Fold these 3 entries.
Entry 1:
Amino acid sequence: MTVASTLRILLAEDEEAMRVYLERALTNAGYEVVAVDRGTAAVPLLDEQHFDLLLSDIVMPEMDGIELAQRCAEVSPRTKVMFITGFAAVSLKASREQPHARVLSKPFHLRDLVLEVERMFEEQREASL
C-alpha cells in the first residue's frame, strides 16, 4: 500500500451525508480516517491520539472549525489543518486566522479533495528531506 496508509486524518463535519462521503473517499485513497460530527467531539481525540491532518468544516454547532484548529495548534502543533466550507466570507476569515491552513470551498469533487490532501503531505515530505 502507499505511504498514505500510515497517515491519519481527523475529520470534523456536522453534515452526516458529507461526513460519510468524505470519510469513504479518504479511506479509499488509503488514509486512516476518524470522523466526528462536531468540533467538541474532536477535541478529546486530539488530546489522546496523533493525527497528521485535521480536516474540518468551518461552520459547525458548539465549536466552529476555526476554534477547533486553534485548539489543535495548542495540543498537537504538528498536525496540519485543512478547512472545508461552502461560505466564501467564512473562507476569508479562516485564511486570516489560520494562515497555514488550506481552505477548500464547497462544492468540490472528491478527487480534488484527495489531491489537495496528497499535496499537503507531499510538501511535508519534501520539507523534511
Entry 2:
Amino acid sequence: MGTPSMGALDYGSIREFKFGCDNYQLLLPTYRSARLPQYPIDNIGVQPDIYLDESIPDWIDYAVHYIQE
C-alpha cells in the first residue's frame, strides 16, 4: 500500500574514483541488475498493489480497516 517508490534499484554498489581534483569525483556503479533492460525500476519505481494518495487522510487507519475486511 502506498505510492510508487523512488526506484534506484537498477544499479548499485557505488565505487568512488578520485582523479586529482577536490572539486570533482567520479562515482560508478559496480553492480547492474540482471533484469535489465527488460524490466527497469529506476525512474519508474516499485508499484504498490494498492495505491494510496492524499485523498486518504490516514493511511494507517485505512490499512488496518483493509486488513480486517
Entry 3:
Amino acid sequence: MNQRPGTGPGETVDGPRDAPVRGGVRAALVTVTALLFAEAGALVAVFVWLLVDLLVLRPSSFAMAVALIVLVAIGAAWVSAIAVASARRAPWSRAAAIVWQVLQLSIAVGAFQGLFARPDLGWALLIPAVTVIGLLLWRPVREAFSHPEDRQG
C-alpha cells in the first residue's frame, strides 16, 4: 500500500477509501463509476470492431486505419484507468473524468450536425457526459474525491 507521510491507516496516495459517504452521495459515486466503466467498455468494443474491420475489409488508407485504431486503444486504456481510479476515489480521476466528458460532449455535438448526422449517437454520448459532469461538480461528490486535509467541515 502506497502511503504518503501524514496519512493514517486506510488512506492511500490516491485518497481515503473509507471516507464516510451518505446514501445520495454513494448513489452518485456508483453512477459516475458505472458510467465510466460503460464508456470504457464501449471504447473497447469500438476498438475490437475497428480491428476486425481492418482485418476483413480493405481500408482506403491503411495508415489512417491503423492510426485510428491506435487512438481508440489509447482512449480505451485511458478511460479504463479513469474508471478504476474513480472506483478507488483517487482525487486525480475526477479532473480526468471531467476532461473526458468534455471531449465526449464535443463528439456528441458533432453527431447532431452535418451531412451524416446521427442524433441517436449524439444522445447516447450527450446524456452520460452531462450526467457525469453534473455529478462530479456536486459538492459532496467533489469532497468524496478530495484528500482528507482538503475537505471542509
